[in-house]
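Question (not urgent): is this output format expected?
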Amino acid sequence: VKVSYGDGHSAETNFNFSSQMDLIETTDNEVVNAGSSGTFDVKYAIKGGEVEKITIDPQNFGLIVRINALNDGIITLDLPREYIDAEKQNGSDEEFIVLIERIDEKGDLGIIQTTYEEQITNSEFRVLTINFEENDLEIQIIGTYVVPEFGTIVMIILTVGILSSILLTRNRLQIKI
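Got this back:
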């Protein structure tokens, strides 16, 4: 677009336009590594970009979705409640915090908080739809827990170890008396 105005002044800019209809939607499952708890699947659909990787951020009780945003777009994620959720103390649903890491017009890296739509909520999944902009790098979804820190087997071993220590200590004290 070239604009001429006033006394010989002009401005020019270039842009590409693609309608939302032209964007390809990809639907897939991403296998997320949950450490000692194994792995779990996150089903997603993305339009306007590609999902590169989904990882867990245990310090922030979050899920990090690394994307390659080729255009402004939208992503829908099926979050399994067993592995990530946001709950109040009474067990009712709490809102997730959704942060997007993006590069602004100046080329600076920044993090903004954004909103999302919750499409489906049931006892097994919460389905979130999040809008993103071209060149966004990652989406972080923060809840109140992400994957139990200790798996069932680890908890059993820990319980057996504690009980054994108690019994051994008790037996030693009885022998000394």
